[in-house]
Amino acid sequence: MATDLLKNIRTRIEKAGEIGKFPDWYITELLGFKRRWSTDFILDITDPKTGKKKAEAFKMVRVWHRLPNNRWLYGGGFRFHEDVTLSQMESHAIEMSFKGWIHGLKQGGSKGGIAFDPSKRTDEDLIAICNKAIEEAVEANVIGPWMDRWAPDVGTNELVMQRFQSRFAYEKRKPGTPEPLATITGKPLDDGGMPGRTEATGLGLHYAYEPFRKELKGKLPKNPTIILEGFGNVGSEYARLSMDLDKRKTIVGVTDKFNGIKGGVYCEKGLDIEKLLKYAKSNRTVQGFESEQKTASKAVLEEMLFDKGADGFVPAALEETVTEEVAKKAKIKFMEEGANGPTLPEADPILEERGITVIPDIYANAGGVIVSFFEWAQDTGGKPFDTDLIIPPSNSPAVVEIVYQQLQGAFTRNGANIINLQKQTKDGNKNISYRMASYIYAMDRVFSRFAAKRNKKI
Ligand code: NAD
After folding, report:
1. What residue owns the CA closest to ligand 1's atom 4?
2. What's the per-residue H, E or C state across 193-236?
3. Measured from the CB, is residue 339 less than 6 Å from ligand 1?
């Protein structure tokens, strides 16, 4: 069910503005965009239906939200998915800003993508699409290490990032200048990547849970059972890391959408994640895994959530999967948003009324944004505005441990701040949600910088 994602996020900003008592000029600033860019590029490419070459137009978009300071830069994911639209990317660019501000990163949010399904294309055609995307962005002068950097998102991975990087370096080559590595993040390690980037978002979800668990002792268990929606980068890394002793969670259900068909597997005692990861890698789906683990059975999400239930639900697929129906019927104690914008605004009050704790996307799934910032900073010497956040030194053999420590520190500090803000802030005589507290916290962290930029007294 597609709703207006942009309208939804704007409504949340307006509400946060009202509760946080921010001035109108600030809200007007945050509701708009610095720039939107889009093009239809054409390639002679294999038609997935006929297998023959033909000219095809690809819609490519990129949106830049706002910078609190003209010296900062933009950063955000780049996705390959058939539903990419300008308006959808606008809402995600705003989310990217808020995630960065919550965690103290000197950046504004950007987001973009190309509207096509990468699973239906040959490797050769994917390379041609990646090359053309970079050529178009360079020609329009909308990409660069001090302008806008791209990160992996839905349908893109480190190999796509490597291809983007390599084409960008080729386009920008000049004798005597080093490759502009800092423009693309999420690259493979031997191409200037940052250790920990691949697992950063999934790992961050585990760290993000902890301050809430400590606050809501008795309600959120230390080792909860989890139903997981989506088994791509975010979902599979979250599941893989849930086997570690200090983060242990029992993943009882996993779903994905393979070839357009939604399905999944369930096991009350817990799925064998090691086996499931191997199975999903070779079959590109979790569907059919019940043949490998005899205690598991085939199940769709609704059946898992509405009939069987679990302590927690982690949506890590696409936007707008948490509908009113899910909010009304899910038998869960908490939901942690791995995906961007998974919850419809109508679902929010229902979850609240039912006492289901929502750990929101703009705080919880920012692990990847933070490590992408580290990757950029490693190549440029850039710094975050949160001085407690240290850029892991790339020449240290323990770099991955430092990345993990910094991620954990960021979630511990900012999670605690959001929880405190939620406790102290009321909407009339009602408590506000953690989502609303996260919006207000992000807006508050950069307010004085926006005010200085606009010559406003505060
Ligand atoms: P991905 O393309 O690697 O994986 C997406 C997965 O979701 C696939 O397995 C697909 O089969 C599944 N899926 C799609 N629709 C589904 C549905 N209706 N039900 C069940 N499964 C479904 O993408 P990703 O990088 O893992 O991103 C997932 C979400 O997390 C997106 O919302 C993305 O914007 C967000 N996110 C990603 C990152 C990152 O670092 N990759 C960072 C922050 C947020």
Report:
1. 232
2. CCCCCCCHHHHHHHHHHHHHHHHCCCCCCCCCEEEEECCCHHHH
3. yes
> What's phi and psi for 316, nearest 5 deg?
-135, 40
Which residue among 99, 111, 187, 257 is the active-site one?
Answer: 111
Measure 154 CA to ligand 1 centroid, in angstroms. 5
DSSP classification of residue 144: B
Binding site membership of 335 for ligand 1 (Cβ less than 6 Å)? no
Q: d(Cα 326, Cα 220) in Å, to the nearest integer?
A: 20
- 249 catalytically annotated: no
Cβ–Cβ under 8 Å, residues 183 and 149 = yes
CA distance 186 to 173: 21
Q: Give the pLDDT confidence of 148-197 residue by residue, as tens digits.
A: 999 999 999 999 999 999 999 888 876 666 556 789 999 999 888 999 99
Ligand 1 centroid from CA 201, angstroms: 11
440 in Cβ contact with 362 (< 8 Å): no
Query: In this predicted model, what pLDDT tens digit does every residue of 92-149 receive, in sequence order?
Result: 999 999 999 999 999 999 999 999 999 999 999 999 999 999 999 999 999 998 899 9
Residue with tokens 């956040």: 389
262 lines ligand 1 (CB under 6 A): yes
Q: Which residues make Cβ contacts (< 8 Å) with residue 307, sequence separation at least 6?
A: 331
CB 253 near ligand 1, within 6 Å: no
Q: String of b and e for 360-372 (b: at least 16 CB within 10 Å)?
A: bbbbbbbbbbbbb
State the DSSP code for 339.
S
For residue 243, the cross-strand partners are: none
Tell whether ligand 1 has an atom less than 6 A from the beta carbon of residue 232: yes
pTM summary value: 0.96
